[in-house]
Amino acid sequence: MVNLALDSTAANPSSLRCHGLSVRFGDHRNVLDRITCEFPAGRISSLVGPSGCGKSTLLRTLAGLQMPTQGRVQIDPPADAGRGEIAFVFQQATLLPWRSAIENVMLPLELCGLASSAKQRRELAIDELSAMELETAAMNRYPSELSGGMKMRVSLARALVTRPAVLLLDEPFAALDDMLRTALGDLLLRRWAMSAFTAVLVTHNVSEAVMLSHHVFVMRSGQLTPPIDDWLPHPRDETVRTSKEFNELYAAVSELLRGDLA
Predict the structure, then answer these.
(1) Is CB count within 10 Å lower at the N or C end of the chain?
(2) What 3-state DSSP class applies to 218?
(3) How many whole angstroms separate alpha carbon 19 and alpha carbon 21?
(4) Going along 30-178, which residue ranges are E strands?
(5) What is the rounded distance in angstroms from the CA atom of residue 53 to the CA atom of residue 32?
């Protein structure tokens, strides 16, 4: 089985820079309004804010799924989704129902022409599913036979199997109960520690943002605050949540959410 910590196929993490980025739909106001910011290479950044403030639109624009009305996104070093260097995890697992869990995770390797054989693609898929702690018996099941938590483990494994430089996550844990979202957040941190990638996480959950991130951005009405640096130590575990530092960061993010952007 491939050792993820030693796998040489991982892409170098890329920074994401937004330069005067705006998105407008029809004649409505800008959903994104002249955003200039940076999501640093090899770090996890969170976007928090009320529903409809533009978080998911920004994430889709970073992924190249939404064209900006003005401004641009700079990815340095360049990364290409077609080569598996940019991966996206949606709120819904969006698994192909006619493929097993292993086959769903093998799919991006097939589409991107990665790995030298079907055997190697299968080994990589099993390795990534193991890293997401999906039980072995479930790996050959179809999505209709999996629980919501299992489906999200498969979705995360599918995104990470190509060893992306950039991972974009649109509220992937929102539909899960608190215990399961905590467990999957911990797995995401452990997977990042094995081979660092750049991640941008959209979430409504302030506690999740503080726990998982190096930087937290608050978004309101299509604009971003300057990032709050999350100085909590790594590796992180659940004991961090009871620390004074965690509570201070939680309060700082919550205060920005209640206020207006400058």
Answers:
(1) C
(2) strand
(3) 5
(4) 30-39, 44-48, 70-76, 86-89, 166-170
(5) 8
Nearest-Å Rg of the Cα atoms of the chain is 18
How far does Cα 134 stand from its chain's mean position?
Answer: 19
Measured between its terminal Cα atoms, the distance across the chain in Å is: 51
Task: At 113, list the tokens.
Answer: 């022409």
Instruction: Classify 24 as helix, strand or coil.
Output: strand
The CA distances from residue 152 to 33, 68, 172, 183, in Å, are 32, 29, 7, 12
CB 86 within 8 A of CB 98: no
Q: What angle do CA 249, 240, 182 make, to 5 degrees?
A: 95
Tell me, what amino acid is at 194?
M
**E strands present in the chain:** 15-24, 30-39, 44-48, 70-76, 86-89, 166-170, 198-202, 215-220, 223-224, 228-229
**In whole angstroms, how far apart are CA 126 and each of 6, 105, 214?**
16, 8, 29
Number of other CB atoms surrounding residue 205 within 10 Å:
18
What's the pTM value of the predicted model, to 2 decimals? 0.92
For 55, counting Cβ atoms within 10 Å of its Cβ (0-12 exposed, 13-18 middle, 19+ buried), the class is buried
Chain centroid to Cα 113, Å, comes to 23
